[in-house]
Write a structure and sequence with these properties.
This protein is of the alpha/beta class. It folds into two domains: 239 residues, Malonyl-Coenzyme A Acyl Carrier Protein, domain 2 (3-Layer(aba) Sandwich); 62 residues, 2-Layer Sandwich (Alpha-Beta Plaits). It contains 14 helices and 15 strands. The strands form five sheets. The chain has a five-stranded parallel sheet, sandwiched between helices. A four-stranded antiparallel sheet has the order 6-7-5-8. The longest helix has 23 residues. It is globular and about 50 Å long.
Length: 370
């Protein structure tokens, strides 16, 4: 344990030292202060114009992956977060450790396992990123279930609430006796797709100008994907464990979800400006069940379309965008949408490999973003 802690401290010190020297020069600017927060030295720089905004994007269903690189366990915030998730999930009847083994494919078959694994890893990755970066995030965007993580990043939810909400979502889908469903990413615009969707296939997530996720009955979705591929149009199935959220087929599960969430978020908090909503169009952001982090917000988040593309348009020029995900599913989408002068570190993890932003060897790449 001590060696792991020392390795994390060494990596963090090297990382922050190089960043401090390169970004601020040999001496820290006026207004800089060194503070302590949960046992981790963090450099807080009060500087206005020279700091680039940092944005986090949290993915949802379809990004589940249990290929965790060994290096991550050397980071104390990561290990501590996973341990906390173990305890919470154990109380929900879920054993996290088997789900983190590469040989276990349950996360692609069982919806509760998928959410438990993904949410735990995202919480741990977020805590590790917070300890690594020297600047606080300027914004958060969540895709579908990823918005639950936005609630945590925004200070509206505890880590325990994140895991409970995610599990109640999975439990409602599992117990809702829904017909087999499917989801697929399609290379078309939202308006064009609306006119081509067959019966029982619905436009569910507006991801980019030319990328939409459809959701619906298993057979019709599979046939639609094959038809589009024959026409030379991009279409690819999403790992949704044979469920179809964000469609009318999910309404029975949505009603159960609302019931299971009773009392889970007793203290509703207003979302800050950092949390850019994807569960409603901007014209509805002032509605009570949209402006506040609440049980009803997450029911809406489960049933309504995902307005991800519209949310990403709020990412400013010169931003650094990080996809906080066990597996990247938005790299292409984000490159299409975010301003061209944004630097994308997408993803944190790829095929079980740790992105250089969390290693001392990759300091120079991160430094070049600021």
């Amino acid at each position: 344990m001590q060696s792991a802690r020392n390795r994390f401290t060494g990596l963090r010190t090297t990382f922050q030292g190089q960043l401090r020297k390169t970004f601020f020069g040999s001496s820290v600017q006026s207004g800089a202060s060194l503070t302590r927060d949960i046992g981790i030295d963090r450099l807080s720089i009060k500087i206005q114009d020279r700091r680039r905004p940092l944005w986090f994007v949290f993915s949802g269903l379809g990004s589940q992956c249990n290929e965790v690189p060994k290096e991550l366990w050397s980071f104390e915030p990561f290990g501590n977060s996973i341990q906390e998730s173990r305890v919470t999930l154990r109380n929900l009847g879920i054993d996290l450790d088997p789900l983190l083994r590469r040989s276990n494919d349950l996360i692609f078959k069982d919806i509760r396992s998928a959410f438990a694994c993904s949410s735990s890893l995202q919480l741990a990755l977020y805590e590790t990123l917070r300890a690594t970066f020297v600047t606080e995030p300027s914004g958060f965007i969540g895709h579908s279930a990823g918005e639950v993580l936005c609630g945590y990043a925004d200070g509206c939810l505890t880590a325990e609430q994140v895991l409970v909400i995610s599990d109640m979502r999975g439990r409602a889908m599992h117990e809702g006796r829904l017909e087999q469903g499917a989801m697929a990413a399609v290379g078309m615009s939202w308006n064009d797709l609306q006119n081509q969707c067959p019966d029982n296939v619905y436009a569910a997530c507006n991801n980019a100008a030319e990328n939409v996720t459809v959701s619906g009955s298993l057979g019709p979705v599979l046939s639609f994907v094959e038809e589009l591929q024959r026409k030379g149009i991009f279409a690819k199935l999403v790992d949704s464990c044979n469920y179809s959220p964000h469609s009318p087929l999910a309404i029975p599960a949505g009603n159960l979800f609302r019931k299971y969430l009773e009392g889970v978020v007793p203290n509703e908090k207003a979302r800050s400006h950092k949390w850019v909503c994807t569960s409603a169009k901007e014209s509805n952001w002032n509605l009570r069940d949209v402006s506040h982090c609440s049980e009803e917000y997450f029911v809406r988040n489960f049933l309504e379309p995902v307005w991800f593309y519209e949310a990403t348009l709020h990412i400013p020029n010169n931003a650094v965008v990080v996809e906080v995900s066990p597996k990247s599913i938005f790299q292409g989408v984000l490159k299409q949408t975010v301003p061209k002068d944004c630097t994308n570190f997408v993803p944190v993890l790829r095929d079980g490999t740790l992105n250089p932003i969390l290693s001392s060897e990759g300091c120079s790449r991160l430094i070049s973003a600021f």
